[in-house]
């Protein structure tokens, strides 16, 4: 028996495709009553992880459960989980209604659910149009309607905002919030933080198959820290002094130091105490998107030398500490 909790639990999940380690020791829990964003750059392993959660591919090791059971052991899975992995596979000569009726028949769901799903996604007026003429946004809505046919407790959506115009994104946001507010569960992936930052309550961020952040988006916002960027004549001496004062510090590629959580005035005072001359000072505030780039930059560039001290649950990153 499944536990009816609405929880998705991923534990120590790994997937290798030959030499590619697409998902590496991934662990997180998705809770009901909230929209959880699954965020990472292209190729980070999001789709692979979602496919393992949905039982479409077998993990190399680790486990993924929904309501306490692996997907393939769920009774009536369509009534528990609705999934959208791809908004493309529609027969172009079928109408939206016909498409949904085919799925409803396969799922043993009454036809009345078809009209309900069309209403829910705002496609009632296009119900008898052939899907071949649908825009990407309409196809996204139809894919969502397909996932909703079984009136599921949990939605798993791969890049559902992809191709939606701002109005479509606003609509999706309202829909998913209402869905989650009723105590249901939403896990949605995206590679674009801006696209989902106002939609999600929680975030799981992955980079190179690994989890680099798991926590509330508000905690991430709170972690947006000021940095003072300074050019010093004796950087190592200044690093020692600012660390002694309790600040984190990063060496930037251009030779400057970034003192985390300090303003340039505080750094100037410390530099004076240490007898270090400063040639340039700049105050910087990191926004959420920059934070995302910094968290995931190891995928494309060298990993950062220093993990900024932030709240939330920071998963282990190669070469870095764990929770900070
Ligand atoms: N069937 C497969 N065979 C070989 N490699 C694969 C396969 N599926 C995925 N990969 C590789 O695994 C890595 C993760 O891919 P995945 O599609 O899961 O990432 P993603 O985060 O969903 O990316 P995107 O945002 O571009 O969709 C990539 O390097 C990809 O090339």
Automatic annotation (TrEMBL):
Domain ABC transporter: 8-233
InterPro entries: AAA+_ATPase (IPR003593), ABC_transporter-like_ATP-bd (IPR003439), ABC_transporter-like_CS (IPR017871), P-loop_NTPase (IPR027417)
Keyword ATP-binding found: yes
Keywords: ATP-binding, Nucleotide-binding, Transport
MF term (GO), any: ATP hydrolysis activity
Matches recorded under CDD domains: ABC_BcrA_bacitracin_resist (cd03268)
Family label: Belongs to the ABC transporter superfamily.
PANTHER family in UniProt: ABC TRANSPORTER, ATP-BINDING PROTEIN
Protein name: ABC-2 type transport system ATP-binding protein
The organism of origin for this protein: Saccharopolyspora flava
């Amino acid at each position: 028996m499944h536990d009816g909790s609405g929880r998705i639990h991923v534990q120590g999940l790994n997937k290798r495709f030959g030499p590619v380690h697409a998902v590496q020791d991934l662990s997180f829990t998705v809770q009901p009553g909230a929209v959880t964003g699954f965020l990472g750059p292209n190729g980070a392993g999001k789709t692979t992880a979602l496919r393992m959660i949905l039982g479409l591919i077998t993990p190399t090791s680790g486990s993924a459960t929904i309501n306490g059971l692996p997907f393939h052991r769920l009774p009536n899975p369509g009534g528990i989980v609705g999934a959208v992995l791809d908004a493309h596979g529609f027969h172009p000569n079928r109408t939206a209604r016909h498409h949904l009726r085919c799925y409803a028949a396969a799922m043993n769901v009454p036809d009345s659910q078809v009209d309900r799903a069309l209403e829910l996604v705002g496609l009632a007026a296009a119900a008898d149009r052939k899907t071949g003429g649908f825009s990407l946004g309409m196809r996204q809505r139809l894919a969502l309607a397909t996932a909703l046919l079984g009136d599921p407790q949990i939605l798993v959506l791969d890049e559902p905002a992809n191709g939606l115009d701002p109005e479509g994104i606003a609509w999706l946001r309202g829909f998913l919030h209402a869905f989650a507010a009723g105590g249901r569960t939403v896990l949605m992936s995206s590679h674009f933080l801006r696209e989902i930052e106002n939609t999600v309550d929680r975030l799981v961020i992955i980079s190179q198959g690994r989890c680099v952040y798991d926590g509330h988006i508000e905690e991430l916002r709170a972690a947006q820290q000021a940095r003072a960027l300074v050019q010093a004549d004796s950087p190592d001496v200044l690093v020692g002094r600012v660390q002694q004062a309790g600040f984190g510090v990063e060496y930037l590629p251009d030779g400057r130091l970034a003192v985390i959580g300090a303003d340039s005035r505080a750094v100037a005072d410390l530099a004076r105490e240490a007898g270090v001359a400063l040639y340039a000072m700049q105050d910087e505030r990191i926004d959420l998107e920059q934070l995302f780039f910094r968290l995931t930059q190891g995928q494309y560039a060298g990993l950062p030398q220093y993990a900024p001290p932030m709240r939330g649950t920071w998963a282990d990153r190669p070469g870095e500490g764990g929770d900070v």
